[in-house]
Amino acid sequence: MAEHKHVYMHRYIMTAKAGQEVDHINGNKLDNRKENLRLASHSQNCKNQAKPKTTRQDIKALQKIKRAITGLHK
After folding, report:
1. Closest listed residue to residue 24, CA positions, set 35, 16, 6
2. Which of 4, 23, 25, 65 is the most buried (most CB within 10 A)?
3. What confidence tens digit (pLDDT) does each residue in 2-36 have?
4. Which among 16, 52, 14, 46 is positioned nearest to 33, based on CA atoms?
């Protein structure tokens, strides 16, 4: 009986070999159209990752921590 291997659609479309990575040009991981895919090295693929967004809640939490730390040093 043959073993079945899980292959991601974007890797299948680009026929990526082991060690190759597939980059989604527009950053949308659900957009697997061939024109949106390219083979890339790991470092190239990392450069194209979306930057984490700082939310308003993050800023408020940091301000609260800063006030607490400042209060400790008085």
Report:
1. 35
2. 23
3. 688 899 999 999 999 999 999 999 989 999 999 99
4. 14
